Amino acid sequence: MSDKEPKPLTGKQLARKPRGFPDKREALIHSQAKLVETITGVYRKWGFEALETGAFEYADALGKFLPDADRPNAGVFAIQDDDEQWMALRYDLTAPLARFVAEAGQSLGRPFRRYAAGPVWRNEKPGPGRFREFWQCDADTIGAPGYHADAEMIAMGAEALRAVGMETGEFVIRVNTRRLLNGVLDGVGASNPETRLAILRALDKLDRLGIDGVADLLGEGRMDESGDYTKGAGLGADEVKRVLAFAQAGADTRAETLANLTKATGDTEEGKAGLVELEAIAKALEALGAPEGDVVIDPSVVRGLEYYTGPVYEAELLREVTGEDGKTYRIGSIGGGGRYDDLVARFTGQSVPATGFSIGISRLAAALAIMDETPKLDGPVVVLSLDRDDPSVALSTAAELRAAGLRAEAYMGGANNMGKQMKYADRRGSPVVVMVGEDEIAKGTVTIKDLEMGALKAKAIKSNEEYREARPGQIEVARAEMVEAVRKIVEAQA
Question: Which one, 7, 12, 214, 277, has the greatest CB density within 10 A?
Fold first, then answer.
């Protein structure tokens, strides 16, 4: 081995995690599982059925923005099977659905309404809050051409967000349509693909840069605070004004926004068709009872328009939080969807109407953690082992509690020291500990300590002597009354 070659890793050097693949402890696992249970429960209530596809798909089946034959690892994690065909971990849950529908053909029946939840993988540069492995929870309808199907997705997505604890005013689903934007682009003479993309990118920065910043990007260009210059779309003053009028058409109600858009989009055929789409969605949303505050028509939504063929929607959390740096910011996007009528056609050659909504479970769980709204974990009851050599009493006590339906464990750390055992119980988030020593066995009792109540009462005690005398939160009950006494404490803390 030459001096220039890296030496093999040894010992603790081997304990390294691949970038972008998070390790999850119980709190996050519990939170994500609860979110999936709640959201899929809403999907089931709306009549959707579960579908689970494999983690791997053939790489050429994953979509136009994914690897081609010359770049099998671009954007995804890919391997070759024994037939030397490239397989890749799924990039999302939609491409596997399209493959499934194409394979099933007419035997599936349409419309086909499915939901799915699971991990997806993207071979992209990881960063803060940006992982290579994360969970999504999707619902899709295949074979429904009417825009009422899009409205259903939007209204159901709003209900799912309310179900996980978001109130009206804390989130919003913004709706736009590709055809409306195409009409605006046609109206300002933006026929060049690069110019159209530059306009869309400028509109996507409206929240961050404001009107003046977007106006610069629509025109000649903009220099940011760092001195970096971004070339603009090159529109003239009148065209810039027209695009900005479109972007600012949002109003307090969906009806008012549509009226503003009618004035701003002009007479292009694509613009007129886009208005028809949004009017149909707005009518269906009203029939579905979707509150105005939950769902708005927002012409500035442009993300995903290279993928979607019609309406597009983005779910955003509005709640402001304070970061470690002391600055206040919004969580931002936690889901979205739209109509993708061309996806199944990749396999069959025939366009199939399809629409879907996806919630980013990992991102939503992280947002709830930041907002301190994760579900409270039910730590186990810990039975303290007072005899290291013969822990049978502790084992049988824990077994009795579990038989009664309580979560319980006997301490297995091997230490007789009560202080260490109590610290272990605190670390596990235990609501209560149970102690059965020689005195208790002789009297046919157990000692139960309510850790939450004990901590509260201990704050008012000033000396160790007083603490030992008071034994805050601690009671002694007959062994036959143990289960009921423990259950009462656990339920009170739930």
Answer: 214
> 3-state class of 17 per DSSP?
coil
In the block, which residue shows the tokens 């099977």? 81
Amino acid of residue 242: R
Banded model confidence at residue 395, pLDDT cuts 50, 70, 90: very high
pTM of structure: 0.84
* β-bridge pairing 474-478 and 445-450: antiparallel
172 and 37 co-located in one domain? yes
Average pLDDT, the chain: 86
Same domain, residue pair 277 and 404: no
CB-based contacts of 448: which residues, under 8 Å, 6+ apart?
A: 432, 433, 434, 435, 474, 475, 476, 477, 482, 485, 486, 489
CATH number of the domain enclosing 171: 3.30.930.10
Q: Could you tell me whether strands 408-410 and 295-297 are parallel, antiparallel, or unpaired per DSSP bridges?
A: unpaired
209-257 pLDDT, tens digit per residue, is 889 888 999 988 888 777 788 888 888 888 888 888 888 888 889 999 9
Residue 119 has which token pair? 């991990």
Domain containing residue 36: 16-370
Same domain? 363 vs 388: no
Tell me the per-residue pLDDT of 291-305, one tens digit each, with 9 for 90 and over: 998 999 998 888 766
pLDDT in tens, 114-153: 999 999 999 888 876 678 999 999 999 999 999 999 999 9
The total of structural domains in the chain comes to 2
Cβ contacts of residue 205 below 8 Å, gap of 6+?
213, 214, 217
Same domain assignment for residues 188 and 331: yes
CA distance 138 to 35: 12
Q: How far apart are CA 245 and CA 253, in angstroms?
A: 17
Cβ–Cβ < 8 Å for 190, 233: yes
Instruction: Check whether residue 61 and residue 92 sit in a common domain.
Output: yes
Residue among 338, 301, 284, 285 nearest 205 (CA)? 301
Asked whether the predicted pLDDT for residue 344 surpasses 80, the reply is yes
Q: Of 320, 345, 370, which residue is a domain's last? A: 370
Amino acid identity for residue 206 in this structure:
L
CB atoms under 10 Å from CB of 473, counted, come to: 18
Task: Supply φ then ψ for residue 119, to 5 degrees.
Answer: -80, 150
Distance of alpha carbon 480 from alpha carbon 152, whole angstroms: 55
Which of these, 120, 115, 159, lies nearest to 136 by C-alpha position? 120
Distance CA 171, CA 296 (A): 11
Is the Cβ–Cβ distance between 479 and 443 less than 8 Å? no
Q: Return d(Cα 437, Cα 323) in angstroms, integer.
A: 48
